[in-house]
Amino acid sequence: MASNISTSTPSLEFEKETLDTDLPSPIDTPLKDENLAQGTEDNAHATTFTPGWRFYLAFISLLVITLMAALDATSLAVAIPRITSALHGTAIEGFWSATSFLLTSTVFQPVFGSLSDIFGRKPMILISLFCFGLGAVMAAVAHGSMALMLVGRSIQGVGGGGVLVLTEIVITDLVPLRFRGQYFSFWINLPFLAIGTPLVIIFLNLKFKQTTIMQQLRRIDWVGAVLFIGSTTGFLIPLTWGGVMYSWSSWRTLVPLIVSAAGLVTFVVWEEKYAADPLIRISIVKNRTVALTYAGDFLQGLLLWCNLYFMPLYFQAVKGQSSIMSAVDLFPGTFTVAPAAIVVGILISKFGFYRWAIFSGWTLVLIGMATRVVLQVHASTATWVIVNLISGIGLGMLIPSLTFAVQAAVPNKDQAYGVSLFTFFRAFGQCVGVAIGGAIFQNSMKREISRHASIAEHASEWSAEASSLVQVIKHMEHGVARDDLLESFANALIVVWMVMVALSAVALILSLGTQHYDLDRPLETDQGLQETEKITVVEDGTASR
């Protein structure tokens, strides 16, 4: 089969006027003439999709590696106290064992998305897998060395962030917009790295206009990358250690936050006005639906991670469960996410509408967070099961619906940038969720402990770190002091849940401003599955096969 890749010389510099290209028109506004003139043949093609065996083999490879990264990002939450104890680490080091992965994963997602446009999707996926594997080995052999484990988790986070963003980008290359819900939603169902890496090498053969390494290096937005990575890292680190390692009023917290915020403003100005081939295309966010969906995506990540971090602490501290059993107790709120996402993704693909799922999802999340106020010391099993079921279904509904909203509103040529920003905002919300939840819990816990004479003298000490307090409770003798501490823990968590209720309400209100975009549009990509040949563009502009 002949390749359909154009052999014309590609532009090595991103033309600034393309930043002003109109985004797809909402369905309730008149379409532009060029959209009307697309022709019935292309539109008909957009409503049918019959993938072949090459697609399924490539897709299976993406499923395997995505599950690997997703599980690693979430599985550590219930084991932090045990890992910290086994490696003889402090409570602060235990905190960083989870945060380091999340931090590096968040920072590098937009970078991998941009580099995949320059070097190709497959090479960047393989680099991500290498980083993930290297970090996993370092963490696995860190017997007695907390420092080695933290370095390994950080490197793993770089690879995990690359895997999570690049697999979503590749889906936009392989599947027409309307049908992405049928395939995207299955990403969490298959296992693992040892299988996934060779599958990617063998079956993920994507078309890509090859250029020389010097041409590719010239296209990288070096200034933007340094500004983004440095400023984002500098912003997230004090955000995660505020109230844990240093107080929120400490200069060690405030100075990095202020300097990094200024750096992010500088980054936006650079990307908007000066970057030849921007790391992030700011024009995407100027669309109302995209901006509101990114806000919802950020809040979903915040709520999801706050739930994953604090619900296990409720089960371990208040209900006295082990790390393993607390993970089992999370099932109603975690195992409902995937089925809800799958069902909603299929329904959106079938009927072509996604706003209903966004509204319904946020409504269920709001109800699920609001009903958490009943999770007291003596709450029954049925109570916390129902509460977690509601929020789990709601969060699951939001996964495909928010994804559709962004991808439908972003032009085909900017899909990689739109998807990488989408995954970044979700991961950024996860980092902020831990920080906000931790600060709220710490202040509430100190206040609650101070109310009880039997334990008031320990208010500052015990409120400093939630995960270390679990071990304190487990080693206390039964009596008034222990009962007062359990009550204080449960009441402090209720304050966290109430803040989550307020944020869920904000997200629901913001979602009302999203517009619907037509999902039936042709699939246009430069990096779809390669059939029989690859075209390489050399320095003089000629094409070789």
Query: Can you write the helix and strand succession as a string?
Result: HHHHHHHHHHHHHHHHHHHHHHEE
Seen as an oligomer or otherwise, the chain set is single chain
Q: Give the total of beta strands.
A: 2
Structural class: mainly alpha
- Percent helix: 55-70%
The value of Rg in angstroms is 24 Å
CATH topology of the largest domain: Growth Hormone, Chain: A
**CATH architectural designation of the largest domain:** Up-down Bundle
Strand content: under 5%
Distance between the termini: 13 Å
Q: What are the segments in which pLDDT stays under 50 over at least 5 consecutive residues?
A: 1-23, 28-46, 183-194, 532-545
Write out the CATH superfamily name of the largest domain: MFS general substrate transporter like domains
- CATH hierarchy class name of the largest domain: Mainly Alpha
Mean pLDDT: 76
Q: Strands across the major sheet, in which order?
A: 1-2
Domain unit count: 2
Morphology: globular
Largest sheet data: 2 strands, antiparallel
Annotation field: number of helices? 22
